[in-house]
From TrEMBL:
InterPro entries: C2_dom, C2_domain_sf, C2D_Ferlin, Ferlin, Ferlin_B-domain, Peroxin/Ferlin
Cellular component, GO annotation: membrane
CDD domains hit by this protein: C2D_Ferlin
GO annotation, biological process: membrane fusion; plasma membrane organization
Domain C2: 302-435, 467-591
Localization of this protein: Membrane
Keyword RNA-binding: no
Superkingdom assignment: Eukaryota
Chief localisation class: membrane
PANTHER family in the cross-refs: FER-1-LIKE, SPERM VESICLE FUSION PROTEIN FER-1
Protein's name according to its UniProt entry: C2 domain-containing protein
Entry keyword set: Membrane, Repeat, Transmembrane, Transmembrane helix
Keyword check for Transmembrane helix: yes
Length: 623
């Protein structure tokens, strides 16, 4: 809410912010994933204060356009605006409810036209489904059919997409410009399908696909997938979009007016539309910009809804800037366990504006260390760089558990802001921070990461981080300083173990995990006879961060060794920090021994000091 008094003005009034969308209804409560992200600037105020809203738009020109949609239908392959299928006016609003003829638009008082009507396609229609991705998976479905009691043969529509629309075969599918294939076509077996990848149903148009074949099933299909990687730059992509825009002539196609529109015409499309704009310029301040539409002069039968039409307002940016984002994903701790083994195979998916990348998979770990740098090149952002520095866009990091079969399981999400550097020679260095991971209302651990956003102003950017194979690692100066650390664990035994899955815990063992290093204890053969371990001392020799802030936790898991090789986890405990157990080793030197040759004991002080005699036969003498 806007107020001329800054003390009463809303905190986010007129400021650019990111809003997470969620699914409506009960699906939003059960599904924690984000279907979309909006980057918006909201301002709510009186019409008399509209000048203040316009003054805030310093990054671009606030333009007002009259808008109408031209609608057509296809009859016997010919496009026309007449006929029984034409359920919308020839020119209407976006929803087709209000009749908006171009010649009936009259500028309201205090406004005038600037230029003529022109076609302005919806920009979102010009983006393919792979827009914003550096890697993408193409898929196509092989369809077969049969009559009752006969064998499977090729369907009348042998290849289709997931919706059943005709599609080129996997051999005819062309590789888009600027992409390269990463592998060959493969059958997707990671779904609810049989051993050959097929799923079955009675009729393909009705749906209801299942993995088990029945005699009454007449249709089946299987999914073929192939991965491709982007190698083109943003400039080439822009030229591709401009060519696509010129080829489509601004038309958007759909099977029916109430269905989703797309920019490429398909066989089953029966309707189409395109958007017309005409710019208006204000001549008197404070005048409203609503149109008064009249179909006939001196007519009183028009509905009030059809008499008023609001224009569209756009911010036209004069210049855009290119940035490079470097995401330093180091490690996570105490994440959720999704597998039956009590661990996860996590990877991080980083999203920034219209681009996204992911890290490698870490096998069976609740404290994964990726030590990986993701580089987002040539990100186009509109607006003043100084405003971007003050309010940088949000970065969303989503963690998933990778499964060989089936969809990845969502582990949680974290949000971060980058350090913006308008000058690449800026000597500041980002600091790794712990970001809280949440899964809905639940806590999902913490992520240790840092982010840098460089303005590509023509100057040389800092050198690329060092490579580890084909991946970039976190550079020195940002990664934690590591030191060789010895961890000694004294583990005597187990007590009071509760039953698990209706069975008593009789043969347990304990696993200690620190920063991916695992030490396993001996197996107790029978807790009823002897609940203690034969060897109570265990030793780690690991590299751990020197600073307490980056110290990883220790995961302690108890497994019960049962028949048929089953080893379920029956207990879990996490020591969030090992710092309180850390002691500095005593260096051997002249000052390490007293005059009597007795060693100085390094440990917490007590009320008594015990002299250790040189002769082992002498008794201890407390002082």
């Amino acid at each position: 809410m806007y107020s001329p008094n800054p003390m009463y003005c809303g905190r986010n009034c007129g400021k650019l912010q990111s809003l997470q969308m969620k699914y409506p209804g009960q699906k939003g409560e059960k599904d924690p994933t984000v279907p979309g992200l909006l980057r918006v600037k909201l301002w709510l105020g009186l019409q008399s204060n509209e000048d203040h809203w316009q003054v805030m738009q310093k990054e671009g020109e606030l333009a007002v356009f009259a808008e109408t949609y031209e609608n057509q239908v296809s009859i016997l392959g010919n496009w026309t605006n007449k006929g029984p299928l034409m359920t919308r006016p020839k020119f209407s609003d976006q929803q087709g409810k209000i009749k908006l003829l171009k010649e009936k638009f009259v500028p309201p008082p205090g406004w005038r036209w600037e230029g003529e009507w022109y076609i302005n396609p919806e920009l979102s229609m010009l983006y393919d489904k792979d827009a914003g991705h550096s890697k993408f998976i193409d898929d196509v479905y092989e369809c077969q059919m049969r009559l009752p009691g006969t064998n499977w043969v090729e369907s009348t529509r042998p290849w289709s997409n997931v919706k059943g629309d005709p599609s080129p075969s996997k051999g005819e599918m062309e590789l888009p410009a600027g992409w390269v294939w990463e592998d060959e076509w493969q059958i997707d077996l990671g779904r609810a399908v049989d051993e050959d990848g097929f799923e079955y149903c009675v009729e393909s148009t009705m749906g209801g696909w299942g993995p088990a074949e029945r005699r009454y099933h007449l249709c089946r299909r299987r999914r073929w997938v192939r991965s491709r990687r982007l190698v083109e730059n943003v400039k080439q992509k822009k030229e591709k979009e401009k060519t696509l825009q010129a080829a489509t002539e601004g038309w958007e196609y759909a099977p029916l007016f109430n269905m989703k529109f797309h920019h490429i015409e398909r066989r089953m499309d029966l309707v189409r539309r395109r958007r017309w704009h005409r710019k208006m310029v204000q001549t008197e301040k404070g005048k409203p910009c609503f149109f008064s539409m009249q179909e006939k002069e001196n007519s009183d039968d028009e509905d009030e809804e059809s008499q008023l039409a609001a224009p569209r307002m756009f911010i036209v940016f004069k210049q855009s800037y290119k940035y490079q984002l470097r995401a330093y994903i180091y490690q996570a701790r105490d994440i959720l366990a999704m597998d039956d083994s009590g661990t996860s195979d996590p990877y991080a998916h980083v999203s920034f504006l219209t681009q996204s990348q992911r890290t490698e998979n870490i096998k069976k770990s609740l404290c994964p260390t990726w030590d990986q740098t993701l580089i987002f090149g040539e990100i186009e952002i509109h607006g003043d760089p100084r405003n971007i520095e003050a309010q940088p866009p949000d970065i969303y990091i989503e963690l998933f558990d990778h499964d060989t079969f089936g969809e990845p399981e969502f582990l949680g999400r974290a949000r971060a802001h980058p350090m913006v550097k308008l000058d690449p020679s800026d000597a500041r260095s980002p600091v790794l921070q712990w970001y809280e991971i949440t899964r809905g209302k639940d806590q999902g651990g913490e992520l240790l990461a840092a982010f840098e956003l460089f303005l590509m102003s023509g100057k040389d950017l800092p050198f690329m981080p060092p490579k580890r194979g084909s991946l970039y690692s976190v550079p020195n100066g940002i990664r934690p300083v590591m030191q060789r650390t010895a961890i000694e664990v004294l583990c005597w035994g187990v007590r009071n173990m509760k039953s698990y899955q209706l069975s008593s815990v009789t043969s347990p063992s304990i696993e200690f995990e620190v920063s991916g290093n695992v030490v396993q204890s001996d197996v107790i053969k029978s807790t009823k006879r002897n609940p203690n371990f034969t060897s109570p001392s265990y030793f780690f020799d690991v590299m751990l961060p020197k600073e307490e802030l980056y110290m990883p936790p220790m995961n302690i898991r108890v497994r019960d060794h049962r028949q048929f090789g089953r080893k379920p986890i029956v207990g879990l405990h996490v020591l969030k920090s090992l710092e309180k157990f850390r002691i500095d080793p005593v260096m051997q030197g002249d000052g390490d021994r007293d005059e009597g040759g007795r060693g100085i004991v390094n440990g917490p002080g007590g009320e008594h000091v015990v002299d250790m005699p040189v002769d082992a036969d002498q008794p201890l003498q407390p002082k």
